[in-house]
Amino acid sequence: MFDSIASLFSFITWPVSWVIVQFHSLYGAVFGPDTGWAWGLSIVSLVVLIRICLIPLFVKQIKSTRNMQVLQPKMKAIQERYKNDKQRQSEEMMKLYKETGTNPLSSCLPIIAQSPFFFALYHVLAGIANGTKIGAINQPLLDSARQAHIFGAPLAVKFLDSADKAASLGASLTDVRVVAGAMIILMSASQFYTQRQLMTKNVDVTVKTPYMQQQKMLMYVFPLIFMGMGVNFPVGVLVYWLTTNVWTMGQQMYVINQNPTPGSKAQDAFLQRLLKTATTHEQVRSSRKRKMIAAIVSKGPDRNDNERKFITGLAKAGLVAQADGSLAKSDTVAAESGVGGGAVRRQQPKRQTKAQRQSSGTATASTETVEKTGGEGGADLEKRPAAKPAGGSSQGGGAKGGAQAKGGAQKQGGQKSGQQGQQPTRSKASGKPAAARSGQAKSGQRKGQQRSKHPSKK
């Protein structure tokens, strides 16, 4: 099956074989032309060259994947709204893709672009295994490639090949299966790890969409698929596929650490590192990081939790992010944040028992009564005229005047008591009798200090 597919890409076989021959001439001068290191490193160099050419497609793949993650809630809403009209649903989806500039197939571009080189290399190695000249590989290079072994396994032999074919290439079947099996396991493990770190670190945890469930399912399905396909690949193709998986894993780790998805755990870790650097040097030197800060500032209230945490951390350090991504000092923010940098928490009052509430209410009422009574008594004393002795009078006149003054005072006190008995004095503010206001007992009440009512019954 793979032979028929590889024949479809025969037009690219000659360029691939020519690149391998050029690298082989370079490494052959160092390790020897017939060694497995020379031919193996030639294949590895081919992978590196192809992946460097595919970097623009990889960047486009990242942007498309993130746009698809952002659009998942809107896509789900369209599917629920037009679930009975598939044509209208498709039209709305295409309209959404066009408005946002998103291409669903962009996430598959690196794999699609790499497939022709993969099958062309498979075609070249199949020709080496069959002893057929192909592309830029002539007879001397063909004989050299057939003698090359990687850890005892020929480049052109497969895991499922017979012992006779392995012996014809100068190797034992055990060596072939051990080396090929180890490469298949490493290839599947690298694929699983790459997908796992993408799902656990570089996915927005605040958005739960079916897209995440699909990716999680593919994380377990893809390694099994590659393991099943790997037994039909020559060792040279396994070297190619293992190298491209390792490249993808390293490239993905760089993206996660330096350009993480907004709202992901990787973004939180990145912003914490950036915050530590910014608060230490009080500036951001990298233009790329300044652009990221400017993008966070431009979001305003639409920032996610990680971005709000970053802006708050800058404020506690006395720094403010500007619209261009630079940092400025803010003494006001630093002073308001205080030493601890935390907001003042409101303290709830302690809960009191019924006896404590009654005692506090009684003490308050008694204090108010004493203050009001003392105030009225002081006012009466101020209004009462002071008796002045007549100058130059004798002792008889002074005694007579004192008796008259005493009699007048008693008369005035009797009149005042009569007036109080006839009509009680009322307060100007509340209109209640002064006796009740001063704590005197009313008719029908017990004498002495009254027990205050419960606060809930007032």
From TrEMBL:
Q: Print the keywords alphabetically.
A: Cell membrane, Chaperone, Membrane, Protein transport, Transmembrane, Transmembrane helix, Transport
The membrane topology term of the UniProt record is: Multi-pass membrane protein
**According to the UniProt entry, which residue ranges have a biased composition of type Basic and acidic residues?**
369-385
Ranges of biased composition (kind: Gly residues): 393-405
A Pfam family: 60KD_IMP
Indicate, by first and last residue, each region the UniProt record lists as having compositional bias (Basic residues): 444-458
Q: Provide the primary localization.
A: membrane
Where the record annotates domain Membrane insertase YidC/Oxa/ALB C-terminal, the positions are: 39-256
Question: Could you tell me which residues belong to the region Disordered?
Answer: 334-458
Biased composition range(s): Low complexity: 406-424
Task: Describe its assembly.
Answer: Interacts with the Sec translocase complex via SecD. Specifically interacts with transmembrane segments of nascent integral membrane proteins during membrane integration.
The UniProt entry's sequence similarity note says: Belongs to the OXA1/ALB3/YidC family. Type 1 subfamily.
Function of the molecule = Required for the insertion and/or proper folding and/or complex formation of integral membrane proteins into the membrane. Involved in integration of membrane proteins that insert both dependently and independently of the Sec translocase complex, as well as at least some lipoproteins. Aids folding of multispanning membrane proteins.
* Designated name of the protein: Membrane protein insertase YidC
